[in-house]
Write a structure and sequence with these properties.
Keywords: CF(0), Hydrogen ion transport, Ion transport, Membrane, Mitochondrion, Transmembrane, Transmembrane helix, Transport. F-type ATPases have 2 components, CF(1) - the catalytic core - and CF(0) - the membrane proton channel. The chain is mainly alpha-helical. Helix content is about 60%, strand content about 0%. The chain has two helices and no strands. It has helices at about 5-30, 40-45. The termini are far apart.
């Protein structure tokens, strides 16, 4: 059974690394966050917690 040369292992590692980086970049930039409108922002900011100890 023939063995792979070190350069072939290195090229395989580079190939899989590039695929991994591209896949992560695509997932990061294609994900769209839901924009909050002003009404939802005011609801979040107006929560006032007054602790009674």
């Amino acid at each position: 059974m023939p063995q792979m040369s070190p350069l072939m292992w290195f090229s395989l590692f580079i190939l899989f690394s590039i695929i991994l980086i591209l896949f992560n970049q695509m997932n990061f930039f294609l994900f769209k966050t839901k924009m909050l409108n002003n009404m939802e922002k005011s609801k979040i900011e107006s929560k006032n917690l007054s602790w009674k100890w």
